[in-house]
Design goal:
Blueprint lengths: L6 E2 L10 E8 L8 E8 L11 E4 L17 H10 L5 E5 L6 H4 L20 H19 L9 E6 L1 H12 L6 E5 L8 H7 L12 E6 L3 H6 L1 H14 L7 E5 L7 H16 L2
Parallel strand pairs: 4-5, 4-6, 6-7, 7-8, 8-9
Antiparallel strand pairs: 1-2, 2-3, 3-5
Helix pairs in contact: 1-8
Length: 276
């Protein structure tokens, strides 16, 4: 297990709920052993004794305010709303970068011509998933007070982060029971190839997993065909026995392919995923 150095967030004064801490990890499943910053939002009143559910996310650098002009989800504010509903959890999020994002967050299937972010690399979503499961999750369990078991563990993200979250939930259903799929970018891979690969998959493995699938409708959403991708995700799950109590599809043409829209829908999605 990797040794980590947990630090207070350098922009702590901008966090309005809970406490944000960071640490760096090596992505050992990758041969180049690239490093990533991990950001953990601790609930208000966290004391290291009481244990909480945990939710893993991607694109961590876009989730919390850092004083820059770049748009953020501002998840600390959204988690306050969730807290007011009686739900608390740790958010554990992995930074990505533009050099590797197109590869890391893409499942290992043939890319389409629409995938403009690969930068001559190959999809490596399986390797990224192994880092999350085999490296990050044990570190989180060792260093933070989290409830173990799939019933207390979720994964989610937006765009490519939504796509890889859906894929990870299917690949590791023994570890996750909540999945947030915002604006999935499945137009980037050959969907039919993935479906063919899953023909031998036992969908009873995902019994009990809740999926919240979302698509907006602005020009970027239309260009990325996120509505088509969202409907495909929903129909594929329903066709393989997922009942209506465990999958929600939300579409709203007013929503943008943007952090402001994903932030706006986070409370509803998180509440659905974690409510008893």
């Amino acid at each position: 297990m990797q040794d980590i150095n947990i630090k207070d967030y350098e922009h702590d004064d901008l966090i309005k709920y809970g406490k944000l801490v960071t640490f760096k990890m090596t992505m050992k499943p990758y041969e180049d052993e690239r490093k990533r910053t991990i950001r953990v939002l601790l609930p208000e009143g966290y004391d290291g004794k009481k244990k909480y559910p945990v939710f893993y996310m991607h694109d961590a650098q876009m989730l919390f305010d850092d004083g820059s002009e770049f748009p953020k989800w501002k998840l600390d504010r959204e988690m306050r709303k969730v807290h007011d509903k009686g739900i608390d959890a740790l958010i554990v999020a992995i930074d990505t970068d533009m050099k590797h994002r197109g590869s890391e967050l893409c499942p290992n299937y043939p890319p389409t011509k629409a995938h403009f972010m690969l930068r001559e690399a190959s999809p490596s979503g399986d390797t990224y998933a192994k880092f999350l499961v085999d490296e990050l999750m044990p570190v989180v369990k060792e260093n933070f007070a989290v409830l173990e078991g799939r019933e207390n563990t979720g994964v989610g993200g937006a765009s490519m982060g939504g796509m890889i979250s859906h894929y990870i939930a299917l690949k590791y259903p023994e570890l996750f029971s909540k999945c947030m799929v915002f604006s999935p970018a499945y137009s980037f891979i050959e969907w039919d190839t993935m479906v063919e690969d899953f023909k031998s998959y036992d969908f009873k493995r995902i019994d009990g997993i809740r999926f919240y699938i979302l698509s907006g409708g602005n020009e970027v959403e239309r260009n990325l065909k996120t509505l088509d991708s969202s409907v495909k995700c929903y129909e594929h799950l329903m066709a393989n026995g997922v009942d209506e109590e465990h999958v929600i599809l939300v579409t709203d043409s007013r929503l943008l392919h943007h952090e402001s829209s994903w932030s706006k829908m986070f409370e509803d999605a998180f509440t659905y995923l974690y409510e008893k």
